[in-house]
Each structure stands twice: as C-alpha cells, then as structure tokens.
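User: Can you write out an input/output pair for a complex, sequences first and structure second?

Assistant: Here is one pair. Inputs:
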Amino acid sequence: MGRYVARRLLQMIPVFIGSTLIIFCMMYALPGDPVRAMMGDQAYDPTVVAGIKKELGLDQPLLQQYANYMMGLFQGDFGTQIASQRPIADIILDAFPVTLRLTLFAFTFVALVGIGLGVVAGLRPDTVRDRGLLTLTLFLVSMPSFVLGFLLQYLFAFKWQVTTPTVTDSTNFSQLMLPAIVLASLSLAYVARLTRTSIAENLRSDYMRTAVAKGLPRRRVIGVHLMRNSLIPVVTFLGIEIGNLMTGAIVTEGIFNVRGVGLEIYEALIRREGATVVGIASLMVLIYLAASLIVDLLYAVLDPRIRYA
Amino acid sequence: MPDKTVEKKVEVLPGDTASTAAVVVTDAGPAPDKARSLWSDAWHDLRRNPLFLISAVLIVFLLVMAIWPGLFTNASPRDADLAKHYLGKPNWGHVFAADWLGYDVQGRSIYARVVYGARASITVGVGVTIAVTIIGTVIGMIAGYFGGWTDTLLSRLTDIFLGIPFLLGALVVLNSFDDRTVWVVIMALAFLGWTQIARVARGAVITIKQSDYVVAAKALGASTSRILFRHILPNALAPIIVVATIALGGYIAAEATLSFLGVGLGDSAVSWGGDVARGREQLRIAPHTLIIPSVMVSITVLSFLMFGDAVRNALDPKLR
Amino acid sequence: MTIIDETAESPAPDGSEGTGRPLLEVRDLHVEFHTRDGVAKAVNGVNYSVEAGETLAVLGESGSGKSVTAQAIMGILDMPPGRIPKGEILFRGQDMLRMSNEERRKIRGSKIAMIFQDALSSLNPVLSVGYQLGEMFRVHQGMSKKDAKAKAIELMERVKIPAAKDRVGDYPHQFSGGMRQRIMIAMALALEPDLIIADEPTTALDVTVQAQVMDLLAELQREYNMGLILITHDLGVVADVADKIAVMYAGRIIERAPVHELYKRPAHPYTKGLLDSIPRLDQKGQDLYAIKGLPPNLTRIPSGCAFNPRCPQAQDICRTEIPPLHPVTERDGGELAGRGSACHFWKETIHG
C-alpha cells in the first residue's frame, strides 16, 4: 500500500508538470499580451512595456519562465497580480474558502440527491418512475449551467423574490443554495444515472440470486449485498467530481457573483494575467490529481478484487 | 455545466468503458433462429424507440436550419432597428414572422438570430466530434495495440491532458485569439477533448486484441495494418460511436458556454451563447431576450443527448 | 456403462415425517417468460417428487426447463418477466406458491438450499467468504457476529477447505474453482436443510475436481439424510450418485426411471439418443451418434411431441398429439416401478 502510494505520487509529478506546462504555454506562448491588456487602450510607450516585461521576467525564454515560476510556486510564492498589486497567494487564500464552501455544498447535493434518485430508479428498472428519472436527468444534462443558472435566478430572485440574485455573503448558506443547486445539477444527473445503471446491472447478478436463495430478508439483500457492490463505481465517480465541481464554479460564480477562485481566474483571464491564471489553474490540477489518487486508493479499499499493482 | 458535460463523461468512462467494451465481446444476441448482428439488432431497437425517433427528427430539423436558415425566415439576424424594436416583446401569434419571438436590445429579430445561430452551434458540435473521434481513435488504437512503452507514453500524455480542466483550458486557449472563427473554436476544443475517445478506443482495442479471432489472424500471418483495419477497428467502433454521439451534445453546450463567457465565437458571429450573454443585462426587464436562445441551446443539446443515449442503449446489450 | 451402486437401490418412500407425503412434490408446474420475441414457455407441466435421503437427477439440455423448475422451487425466479400460471410446489405437503413472501423466505436457505453452477459469480465478490457463510447463522438464527464466524470456520472445515481458520477472511476470488464450489456447498449446508438443489454443481470445474466435489456432496447428503435434486446435462455425473432420473425436454419430463433402468433400457428416443451419443471405448472406430437438429425455440414449441422434428421414429401422430407420460411396463405388462415415458411409441423404443 505504502509503496503503491509512493509510486502513484511519483507518477503524478510528470503529469502535474505536463498539465501545468501546457496551461503555462497556452497562456504565454499564444498571441495576446498581458502588459498590453493591462494598459488597455491607453497609448503606451514601447520602452515602458519592455521595462515592465523585464521586471516580470516575461522577456526570458518560455521554459525558463516556467521553471522560474514553478520554483516560486514550491516556495509558496505565487507571484503578484499586476492589476491589484496584491500577492496572488493572498487572493487565492481569500477566494479559495468561498469556492470550497460552494463546492462542498453542491457536492452534498450531488451525493445525497443523486444517489437517492439513482437507487429509487435502479431498483425498479424500466418502470414509469425509472423512465421518468432518466428523462429528468436528460433534461438536467442538456441544460448548460448558465441556462439553468439564469432560469433559477430569474424565477427565485426576480419573479418570486425568495432569494437574492447574487451572493453577498458567502458564509450565508441560504444565499449559497441557488448557486450550489446550479453547480450540482449536471453532476447530480450523472450520479443518478450511474447509480441507476449500476444498481440495475447488479440486481441481475448471480450473487444477488444467491443472496435471495439464502433466505436473507429483502432489506439485507439490498442494503448489504446490492449496495456494497453498486456503489463502488459511484463513490469513485464522486471523488473525481470534486475537482470538476471546482472548475464548474467558473460559470456559476460568474452568474451569482460569488467571489471565489472561479471568478478570480475568469477575471484574470480576461485581463490576460498569466500569473494569476496559471497559479489558480495549477491548484485545480493539483486538486484533480489528488482526488484521482484518493479515488484509486478508495477503489482498492472498497473492492477486494483490485490490488495495488 | 456544459464544459463538464464533456469532461464528465471522461469520468463516467471507467465504468462505461467496461460496459461498452462488452459490446464487442457479446456480439450476436441470443437469437434462437435468425442470427442477428450487433448492428441490425441495434437498428431493430432504435426504430421502435420513441426517444430515438423524436431526437432524430429534431436533429434533421436543426441540420436543415443550420444549412439553409433562409428557409425559415426572411428576416436578417443582423438588421437592427433600435428605434422601432428595442426589446420588443414576442408576438406568439406571429409564428415564423420576424417579430414572433420579439427583439433584442439592439432591435434585432430574436427569431432570425435563433435560426441563424444554429449553424455555429452545430458546426462546432459536429466538427469537434469528428476531430476528437479521429485523433482519439488513432491515439487509442496505437496505444492499445502496440502496448509497451508506446502505451505508457501515450497514456501518460492522455493523463496530462485529462489533468487540464476542460473549460479552463478552453478559456485560456480561446482567450489568446482575437479572431475566434468557428475553426479556431473547433481546434481548441478538439485539442483538449480527444482524451475521452482515446481511452475508450484503447480499452476496446486491448479487449479485442486478446480475442481468438485476432490471435488467429496473427497466427495466419496477417499484417499489422490488416489486423488493425480489418479486425480491430470494425469491432472497436461500437463503443467509440457511443461515446462520440453522446459527447456531441456536450460540445454544443461547451461552445455555448464559451460564447456566453465571451471567449467563444467572435462578436460578429451569430451564436446562441453570445445572445444569452447579451440578454443577461435585461434579465429583469426583458427575460425573453435571454430565455429564448437558452431554450434553443437546451433543445439542441437535448436532441443530441437523447440520440446518443438511444444509440448507446441499442448498442450496449448489457444495459437492456 | 455398468455402474452398480448399492445405495441407489433405496426403494419405498420413507414416511418418517409422519405425513406419508414426499419431502418435495412438484405438480403440473408451468412457467413462462414474457420476452420481446413473445411468450417463452419454459416449463409446461412438470411433475416430480423427492424423498428425504433420495437423489433425483434432472437431466436435459440447456433450455429444457430444468433450471427454471429449480428456480421456481427456490422462489428465485425473476417475476416479471417470469410467471407461474399454473401448478403446485408442495414442501412437506404445503404449497409454497401460496405462502407469503416471508414464509417462503424462512424456508429458503434453512429448509431448502441451492448450490449454483458458477461459484465465482454466485458468491458476492466484495464480501469475505466468512461473512457470507456466517450470514446464514446471523439471519436465520440470530447468532452474534463472533459465533457466526466460528460456525463459518467449522463449515469450511466440514467441506475440507485446508487452513480454514486463516482463510475465513479471504474473498471468493482468492480461492480456486474447486474450493469456491466447496464454499457454495458449505453455504447450502449451513443450516442442515432438508433439501438441496444443486444446479450443475460441477460443470464449471476441472474433471478431477468434479469427482471430488460430487463425492463430497454425496457424502454430506448421506450424513444429513437430505433430499437432493441434481440438475445436470452430464450423464456421467448422474450415474454415480442419483437414485432416479427425470429427463426433461422443452419444459416437460419426457422420461423418468430409476437410474440404472434408464441406462439399461431407455424408453424414449431422446434418452436413447443421449445415451448413444456418449463416446464408448468398445465402439472405437465407429462414428459417434449425435441427435440431429437443435433444441426447440421456447416461444414456438413444435405441435404434438416437442421432440418430433429431431426424432428418428417420428410418425404423423407425433406431430399432432402431445404424448402423456405413459407408465412403462414390461413386455408382458409387468409393472416397472417409477418408470414413465412421454412417447407414443415407448413400447417400440424399450422393447423393439
């Protein structure tokens, strides 16, 4: 187990470097100039621009820049945001807890409602309630989050005025409710479908027949034998979802004006501020990789057939 | 979240790969007298599936709209008459007329914009799907068939691209381009989106590679290219097609989301996502300017998802 | 084909339960499945009975309805699509089809237990074998977790699994095929049931292991005086352990007989064909006989005798009239206990 974790951690290093390098290159190598974006439409002096570039290290070769950047990152130095002149680490520290709250809120929705619906449908495959749920999830999946977001915002905030259109206080859970639902909707639909398929599939398995033949009560057949097997893929899927929910926050936070990392990264991107974008993106990659490692370990714990290879 | 619609399916894959790969193995069904092939069995199912029929009709309708928008409206999506039509309300009785669905903040016919917007969405959706299918299949097949260090290298490359959040990556790439044409958007999404198909193709090829008929073909001295194209590719196709059809809806949603975020197609392009973004300012006073293009996006995504879902159910006997 | 087994000669039904009724009696059982190709009639009026300590072998090809009958007895048919339109399943004289779900559940596992063909897929992959064995005691006898584990180890020793104590926490995939089937047997035996249904218990195993598992099963059956229904398509397995045989075809019993009678003098062309298709050393060099054609499609069972399209002796009457299960007698009319054949021409088959 320990050796497996160590090996996986080692394998993560090239993937982390690769992913962040690609983001870094996309940010800096593609056309578009952060200094120019910063100065906007003002007439600017090329020598001033060159000076700023030199100061920021933007005149060095790309790989050199990347190496410098990563060295800084590992010493906790994310760089400084050009627009606000604040350390990027501070910005992340401010914004991250907000996104974390939103994500965890959404995640709770996904896990509880998604699994619940999936179980309800999967236990009676091909009935009206199963088909109803499949249709409902199809609708949820086909509604891009900005569509659902505006729809709910319009209905709940403007039409019925039961909540505020934007989030002014991210520690207020009733304000976070709407964004969390919007953020959760797609994952929720996937989890419901996955749970449903998994349950319906395991329901027909030989060991379920054995469990019934053993004279176990239905409660036990379903609660122990069916659930234990069916939820393995769901749990692993949920693990990966945490990372996805965080990126999904880019849109949701924008709609509801939640000051989390999603909004920060989006605004930085529009200003073409590489350091902020790559810094937050690296964090997201790291969370994603950590989540997939945890999922793999969890998988092996839940399913004795999987061994750490 | 449309971005995730795409990425999410990557995650469903571990489970899905297994079940879709099973398609390959459990070929002909248990038909007692007439042997049915996977494809004819699937077609038999599809023809009777109302979801498939509805989605097929909708897709044909959307395709016609994308190719010949002029068939649906005489109004131009770019003609703006601020004085007369500023945020004009829809006239539900005037079906197919310029004022049917009202006017936007610049006094342009929303109906015309909705009709002309189909082209961008569908071109991007179909284009990205074709591109990722080709890239993904090639990479997946090479990795799965040759194995060894080739596989390690390509799998690691897949991991690297999987590590980049799809929406974030697309935002970064597209933000660097000032002139974002349909082709730029397609390339950007394909650049980030091929991993999913590559994984499925690799999984399917590995399963098929071990099957008796491939072993037999090898023993008989068939060449590598013959084995790959005559034996492996046709049998790996089912799971790839399933994933690709479902992903198509996701790419359409992704394009709309990116346009909504202001980094999709350029401002001059008529696109649903862009219209939603512009309608946002009037959400309180004129919700129709936002809701109507939103509904179009959802209907389109829904059509392709239903289509993909039906194809998946038909091609994957395990889910029946 | 000269197998003589003294134990097989057990004659009269033992009325030790006081009712004088057999342990299990299936009467005119019908089972059908509603599929997208139509209604598949899997079982069409099956009658058989088993006594305590007796072994009934049910023989047939796949699709003959032998497993479906067993599943109906166990109450583990998938309903829907399955349906039991007609019939009775009497356990100690009580019709199980009329019992409440809870009553049936209490019989399952404790009074009637089942051994499945593929132990790997039939055991839960994510629960340890100790847990799965102990579950029987915990659920049916309310035993504590600790006691149940001790019982599980005992059971594993009973079915001769080496180092049972160390292996009780292992998972099904960590055992060999033979060992897994032993665990299935142990699970079925756990509560010392009155009747065990073994559905092709050795088909998935290597030939050498098959014999070991069959011997173990026979030994345990004798010890506990259990009734055993052995479902198989393997005539070789049957000869050693069974007392009587029922041959099924297209959802009906087409012949029944005490085991050695059947081998000696089959009274149905299908049974005859099955016996002739066993390779024999004394017929070296000759072509092996094979029954031509395929088993019928259960959604479209041929009219008359279901076997008529494949039967070498088929006449017109075979295509129109369903033969009942005639009692089979000696040439002179002398009674042959327990024999029956559903063939219009049984006389010609057995005596001709």
